[in-house]
Amino acid sequence: MAKAPQASKKPPVSKAPAAAKSVKASARRSAAPKLEGDGSTLNTSVDSGAREKVAEALTKAVADSYTLYAKTLGVHWNVQGPSFFGLHKLTDAQYNELHQAADAIAERIRALGKLAPTGNETFRALTVIENEAPHKPTSEMIAELARDNETVARRMSEFAELADEAGDLFSHDMLVARIGVHEENAWMLRSSLAQ
């Protein structure tokens, strides 16, 4: 008797594992590295390592801007004397601009995948601006705001250089613009004190 040919012992071919492998490989190739913060996967114009450094600098910049905003608002409320109206208007314009700037910087931090700072304790730890001093005469408050704006302008310059080195052109340009605003604020405040 002739033997029947034996069936091949090869396992059945399944298309599912190959398809799954292909999807996983494709996902690995297209996935950008994750940046700690909001848990999002980012694929921006800025390298992930550079985003960390720039976001850290921007976190300090937003703390400086927000603290200077609060301080300028306090001066706005408390100026008095013969120059009251002009100083009240000047500080009004400056604190409103600072509020918008803090918001824009915080939104840039979010765009880089980090969480923006919040809370007075956090701002106090990150800023170079002292805002816990008791009320002072108007001329002293204005002189102090002028110095604070100069200090923040210097910090923005450091942060702009860091952003430039990191290749973050948007943050660099934003910070360079802030330098000009703070230097102009300082000039206007100093000029208001001239006799």
Instruction: State the total count of DSSP E strands.
Output: 0
Q: Give the ordered list of helices and strands.
A: HHHHHH
Give the CATH architecture: Up-down Bundle
Total tally of structural domains? 1
User: What spatial form do the alpha-carbon principal axes imply?
Assistant: elongated
Q: In whole angstroms, how far apart are the ends?
A: 125 Å
Helix content: 55-70%
Structural class, please?
mainly alpha
Largest sheet: none
CATH topology assignment: Ferritin
Work out the helix count.
Answer: 6
Oligomer: single chain
Radius of gyration, CA atoms, in whole angstroms: 28 Å
CATH superfamily: Ferritin, core subunit, four-helix bundle
Strand content: under 5%
Are there runs of 5+ residues with pLDDT below 50, and where?
1-5, 7-36
Protein name: Ferritin/DPS domain-containing protein
Pfam family, one: Ferritin
Region (Disordered): 1-49
Biased composition (Low complexity): 1-34
Descriptive notes:
This protein has 195 residues and is mostly helical. It has one domain: Ferritin, core subunit, four-helix bundle (Ferritin, Up-down Bundle). Helix content is 70%, strand content 0%. Helix 2 packs antiparallel against helix 3 and helix 3 (84-111) runs antiparallel to helix 6. It is elongated, with a radius of gyration of 28 Å. The chain starts with 14 loop residues before the first helix and ends with a helix. Residues 1-5 and 7-36 have low confidence and may be disordered.
